[in-house]
Design a protein that fits this description.
This protein has a two-stranded antiparallel sheet with strand order 1-2. It folds into 2 domains: 62 residues, Orthogonal Bundle (Arc Repressor Mutant, subunit A), CATH 1.10.10; 31 residues, no CATH class. It contains 6 helices and 2 strands, in the order αααββααα. The two termini are 32 Å apart. It is mainly alpha-helical. A hairpin with a 2-residue loop joins β1 and β2. The chain is elongated and about 55 Å long.
């Protein structure tokens, strides 16, 4: 599975949220103003279809698009790549970094410990 560009990921986030929709539905859910042109988003969605992330149902010349890849599957891929590329594939390195940079509040450290204990 490929990674997505920022624009492709933005479109996928919308499709994951709305489950299925037409190009106009995706544009309507975009937060930026002015909204991107219809043809731009249509092109992005066609690229996502080619990459295998999106599928569609045809109604004549109109297409309803829906995610073919789940958000969870993509999240796993991205996290695995992030872990490999920035932390040598080590969960210990991630946690160590976050604790040393004070990115994890103390109350969450306790919760994480409890989760780990439950998993044992």
């Amino acid at each position: 599975m490929e990674t997505l560009t920022k624009v492709e990921e933005k479109v996928m986030q919308i499709l994951w949220n709305i489950k299925s929709g037409f190009v106009k539905d995706v544009i309507d859910k975009m937060e930026e103003e002015p909204k991107p042109p219809y043809n731009t988003i249509s092109s992005v969605i066609r690229i996502l279809v080619k990459k295998g992330f999106v599928d569609f149902k045809a109604y004549g010349k109109t297409y309803e698009y829906f995610p073919k890849i789940s958000k969870l599957a993509y999240k796993k891929l991205m996290f695995t790549q992030f872990l490999k590329n920035y932390f040598d594939g080590s969960y210990e390195n991630v946690v160590s970094y976050m604790v040393s940079e004070e990115e994890i509040p103390n109350e969450e450290v306790s919760e994480i410990k409890q989760i780990i204990e439950k998993m044992k």
